Amino acid sequence: MDKVSVAVIPGDGIGPEVTREAIKVLRAASEVHGGVALGFTEYPWGCEYYLRNGRMMDERGLDVLRDYDAILLGAVGAPGLVPDHVSLWGLLLPIRKSFDQYVNLRPIKLLRGVPGRLIGKGPEDIDFVVIRENTEGEYSGVGGRVHVGTPFEVAIQSNVFTRQGTERVMRYAFELARKRQKARRVVSVTKSNACNYSMVFWDEVFHAVAKDYPDIEAVQVHVDAAAMYVITRPEWFDVVVATNLFGDILTDEGAAIQGSIGLAAGANLNPERKYPSMFEPIHGSAPDIAGKGIANPVATIWAATMMLDFLGYEDMGALVISAVERTLLEDGPKPVDLGGAAGTAEVGDAICESLYRLAG
Ligand code: NAD
Ligand code: IPM
Ligand code: MN
Fold first, then answer.
1. CATH 3.40.50.2300 for the 1-101+267-360 domain, yes or no
2. Active-site residue among 2, 63, 212, 224?
3. Annotated active-site residue in 127, 191, 238, 309
């Protein structure tokens, strides 16, 4: 039997609540599938760890993670206790960068059984994938502050776009459009009317890469218009390629048209598999509902299916997604963010039951 090792970082807020359910569902899936043994090792890194140890993760944390097949992450952030830029730059962002997880793949898909939020748009209209550049751009971490606290203080945050970094993520998007066999269209999100260096460069690389894919339509759209089209004509999108910041914002908007951010999943991929990839929900630690047991675990469960897909167990991933859809379609427990009253664990249990039933 295959063995897969997964490092789990539950993190902060609702992170531990939702990862618990994802592991529960993964265990059930591996039981009914039978072909793979999943081993989970939890690491207690996050804001509480920071308050005790002065750092977000173990000093050797990245070396420890490197040996795993995959990483499953809940959420990071405890505003009020640890400043967000400290917590995120101490755990999540270093993992994405150090492990060269340059593709942030975020499916925007309205599942069957989820009430849509856009009038007249159903599951057949809302089904696209955002490929977000995940290691550079606006989140390169280059900048500084001088004359701090004085009236002539200066703050600079620089965007860094490299040819290699831009080209490889665009190539990934075009390859995916070929594989999906849907509209065969890649939409590049830009803002080259105002960002006259970085985004003009982004556009040039996009059109150069597009030449290698004459069978795929290549369209560039400014981010402001793209934000509108996500609402007015989601069916037009197939594969979207975007910078770190634009992809971040557009995928929270995407999460909204999926029905709830509690459903939206993502994968941080190192496509070359030199380093482990990391799977996580799009949402954060949701301090407003943390500890109440009402967070929707589906986003993290869906992220776990993306992990199964990436590791080559697509049949197992598809089984879990079917179990999620069936749970949402049936008259069973509905999560609170979808207008129901079911708690996090209740939703996880119902998905496990659907899974056992589906597997016969
Ligand atoms: P958030 O995603 O945590 O919450 C936004 C809203 O969505 C809140 O109303 C919350 O209750 C709701 N929500 C989120 N997940 C939900 C779920 N599973 N079920 C039901 N409702 C859910 O974003 P925020 O409030 O901007 O950030 C809170 C903290 O999380 C901050 O510290 C931020 O930096 C951090 N954050 C971390 C990540 C990550 O770890 N990947 C992502 C985003 C934000
Ligand atoms: C996300 C989050 C992170 C990001 C933050 C918490 C740094 O918003 O995963 O979407 O912007 O990448
Ligand atoms: Mn985000």
1. no
2. 224
3. 191
